[in-house]
Each structure stands twice: as structure tokens, then as C-alpha cells.
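As practice, study what follows.
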Amino acid sequence: MTDVRHLPSRRASALAGLVAGGLGLGVAELLSGLLPGAPSPVTAVGSLVISLQPPGAKQLVVDLFGDADKLVLNLVVLAVALGLAAGLGVLAARSPGLANAGFAVVAGVALLGAVRDPLTDLVLSVLVVGVGLGVTLLALPRLLRAAAPSEPAMPDFERRRFLGRALALSAVAAGSGALGRLLLERRSATTAEVPQVPAPTATAPPLPDGAELDVPGITPLVTPNDEFYRIDTALLTPRVDVGEWRLRVDGMVDRPFEIGYAELLAMPLVEQYVTIACVSNEVGGHLVGNALWRGVRLRELLNRAGVQPGATQVVGRSVDGWTAGFPTAWLDAEGREALVAVAMNGEPLPPQHGYPARLIVPGLYGYVSATKWLSNIHLTTWEGFDGYWVPLGWAKEGPILTQSRIDVPRDRARIPAGRTAVAGVAWAPDRGISAVEVQVDHGGWQPATLSTPISDATWVQWAFSWEATPGSHTLRVRATDGTGEVQTDRVTRPAPDGARGHHTIRVEVG
């Protein structure tokens, strides 16, 4: 029978499990950073969590964390993994077999998440997870022995020796994990040997006079690439080798084909400004942006394939398996040009925004149309397929709603009395904006000045000159789209088809 007087304390056992688990995880992360095609265990588990999310989880996470959702998920996965390791350390001091089985189960979950990713190599997945598990199971008993007192009460020198060893191994674990993550992030953010994107054969018209209003603090008319919102399910940006990348057009077509990146760039390229938005954007939110996109007309690729009469849905599939679908009828409107985009604001697509190619479909929320890292365009029936977000409770059709936002002044701002500018942006792609109105407190709606529109597919800036009087005031904004429909005051959550209501702020004057 084991003498419990010489077993490590629960606290020491938990620390031993934490350090051993952290060391195994750190080594596994380092291997994933060193070996292209190897999975990150943390990312693999995070991706598995995303795939198993219940309806409504997406909106909750975006509401809480916005663009930081991926970082938060990675940190949560890491914290849970280390917490489990600490608990298994306590168990290992008294039942090593059960603890080893528990670590094996945790490793199995990571392996399951890894093998589900089409971008990871199966052999490397087994190698990384196996090495991580092996390091943990080798380190844990040694740490437990170091934590076990030689007499009923651990002498100070033994305690110091154990803590010193735990601290040293923790530093190794943290350093390995941080280096591995750095290598992963650098690799995913790098596009080696990016070919120069040719000049377009049809350029976007120059920005018209009056397209931008001179109001400090207003959102820029064209969103810089590094400020453009990003919402997707990829915890690590997929790194695509354009030498091997192929875009396949198939499904209900007469002539399915594949095309490489060089051949795609050799096709006639066109440019257009298009505003796109995330369906998770709250009223007044910033998950919306406007950019100059350059790419191949989607119609040209579909015409080459010969779309069959019964095809009623275009499905885009990403290299990581993500899917989105929209009606083929959406492309029938004259002047509505969907693109397989290869450049953004004059530069090749940044990796985080879909390099080497993505879909841009004017007028539709991204969750049904804006497939990044595009690998497949599939023609099917409307009833025959549901994109990634549809089974999770989001509407199958996703036209962007008419929206407007107050950029200046900021909500809860304190401003001086007198004439002040109230300004922002409004969008209704691809119907355009015909009017924007502002309401002060409960007064009447007053017209704002609009910038000159680039096109119906983009947002406009607007400004209203307000004679601010001392006191607390409420400001609201509403837009009217190009069809004459006024933005509704009916308030809805983003799910299932976009947020509704008037953006409202409160300011203190005086």
C-alpha cells in the first residue's frame, strides 16, 4: 500500500500536471510551427469547437469579442487544456493509469480536430499529437517524484528544488509554445512569391468630386486593408501555394474545369468598389467595409462551364472546407457584377482576406457569398445544399439590409455648445442610398448632406450641421435606399438575417 505521507500534496501534484501538460503542448506547438502541414493542437481543438457550436453561439461570441474572437477562443482552449492537465496531475499521484488514460483522451480530441482539417497532413498530425502526449507522460512521473516528500513534511530544500525544476520546465514550455505559434502565424501570413496582379482591362471610374466629406473622425470612404474587418472560422489563416492551387468549377454544368492562378490572372480583370458587410454586425457596428476589388467576372467562369437550366444555387467552397451559397438568379440583374477577386485596394489579396482568390458578390452578406481562399465553385439546386451557417440557424438568403451609422460625435461624448457636425456612413448595396436623415431628441427628421456616390454597390458618407444646445441629447439616423425604402425602426438582433433599427447615440452638450 502506498504511504500517503510520502505522496505529493494536491497542490504540488496539480503543479506537476500543469507543467507536464504545458511542456507537451509547447513541444507540439513548436513542431507544428517547424513542419508545414502539421497541425497546431490548440487550433485543432478550437476548430473542432467551432464545428460543434450550437445555434446562436456565433453572434454571442462576435457581440462579446468582435474581431478578437479567434484570439479569445485560442486562449480559452489553452486555459482548459492546462486546467485539465493540472487535474490529471492530481489524479496521477494516486492513480497513474487513469491519469495516463485521461491525457490520451485529451490527445485524441486534438487528433480528431486535426484530421478533420483538409489542410493538415495525417502522418504529421499523428506525429505532433503523439510527441506532445509522449513528452507529457515522460515528464509527469518525474515531476511527481520530485514533488513527493522524503518525510511526512516536505523540507524546504526539497520544495525549492521542485519549484525550481517546475519553473525551468514552465519556461521551456512557454518558450516552445510561443516560438511555435510565432512560426505558425508568420507562415500563415506570408504568401511566398506572390505574382504581380495584372492591370485591369476595365478600371473603376475615378472617385467623383464630392465622394468624400471633410469631417474629422468620419469613416474613410475606402477602408484600408489592415483596417478591414475580418470575421471567419479560420483560427489560423490558410496558407495557399499558388503553384499548386486550383479553382474547380463543377456541379450542374456542361463543361466542368479547373483553372490555376496564372491562368486566372491571364483572364480579363475588372475593378469595382463594393461595400461588404457581416450579418453579425449590430446596428451602428463596424463589421462593414468598402474596398476596390479587382478580379475576374464570375459570369465568365460560369459561362465557360455552361450552367445547366436546373442549377439554382452557386456554392463557394474554401480550401479549408467552409461553404456559402447564394441563388444563381442573384447574378441576373443588369450591372450586378460578382467577382472572383484577386486584388484588394490595388494589392494582391492579403492572406487574411482570402489570398489567392475570393468571391465578392454585391448586395449579399458575407456568410452566404464572400468565400475566402476559394477552391471550388459548385452549381447545384437551391434545395440541394445548405452553406456552413444555414444549419446553425442563419437565413439561407442574405441580402444586405439598409443601414446607417453615426461616426461623429461618439456615443456618450461631451461636446461644446454651438454648431457641430454629426456625420457617418450609410449603405444599401446594391440599391444605393438616396437620402439620410437625422433626428435630435424627439424632433422631426432633418435631411443630411450626402457625399457623391461611387456606385449603388458602395456606401456613402453623410453629414448634418447641428446647432447643439446645452444639456443631454439623443441623436438618431436613418437612411432611404435607392428604391425608396426607408430604414426600419423595428429593432431586431442580427440573427437570422441581419440587425434592424436606427443607430442611436447620446451626447452631453455644454
User: Anything to note?
Assistant: DSSP finds nine helices and 19 strands in the chain.
